[in-house]
Amino acid sequence: MTSNAPRSRSIKSYSAAAVALAATTALLAGCGSSDNDKSSDPLQAGKSDGKTVVVGSNNFAESILLADIYGEALKAKGVKVTYKPNIGSRETTYGLLKNGSITVLPEYNGALLAYLDPKAAPKTVEATTAAIEAKLDSKLTLLDPASAQNKDSVTLNKATADKYKLTDKSSIADLKDVAKDLTIGASPEFQTRQQGLVGLKSVYGLEFKGFKALDAGGPLTQAALKKNTVQAADIFTTDPTISKENFVVLQDPKLLFGFENVQPLVYKSGLPSKGVSALNAVSAKLDTAALLKLDTQLQDNKDPLDVAKAWLKSAGLA
Predict the structure, then answer these.
(1) Higher model confidence: residue 30 or residue 136?
(2) The pTM of the whole model exceeds 0.90
(3) What fold, for 2-150+259-314?
(4) Fewest CB atoms within 10 A around its CB: which of 101, 156, 222, 293?
């Protein structure tokens, strides 16, 4: 995900991203867990003391949930954990991982690879992992990928889909002749990413009438699409809003958005071996269907920490 987060995901000229980050962090602050081991300042300096594992997340609800799932799984194995939620985009979190300020970050493999190597086009999950590892900073490593995926997408509101007679079987390529009449909304970073406007132009030949900087597939983007402020948007594919609002997700046959498996990215020296085993055990049981159910609970205003703990218990991991 570009969520990247998704995908983003996914979730960039950085000055624009910083403004959006400030607004989005404030908006999503209520989505984070209220545990007293969560830092009030996600960008606060200070590395792990070697005994505490710092679990970070990007600034969208699913990333916060995944951080809670992996973090609470570590706690269940006796690992001391603190959280840095709502940090922001990959451009920020990757740097914090490299300097050891974060120990664990739930990533989306395709979006991470697009950040590290925009020209890479792997055909399997295994090839995606190998391509990432070839580009990773030497202090970092990937753990096992989950089968759960949450991709970025080009999603239309119902009115736009009906107008151009497009369905969920239609391709992104089917927008080539009409994109000039549409405004697309997404996080600011979507403008400059290969898994964004750059790739939509180079891979599918799309040039949109306009772009509106919103959030990473979150409430601002969803509301703009619903109100027709934008006619297309980057919405993560596990978002329950898609079915609720009758949005139409277009197919991506050229795999611009690639593979977007949830996969922990780790600062090697900060995670004990029992922590590695705990995180791999989570990934072994987390699939897309489960992630969608968990995301639906978030949309019902349940606390991510409570949702995470309940799922870990049901999966025999807590």
Answers:
(1) 136
(2) no
(3) D-Maltodextrin-Binding Protein; domain 2 (3.40.190)
(4) 293
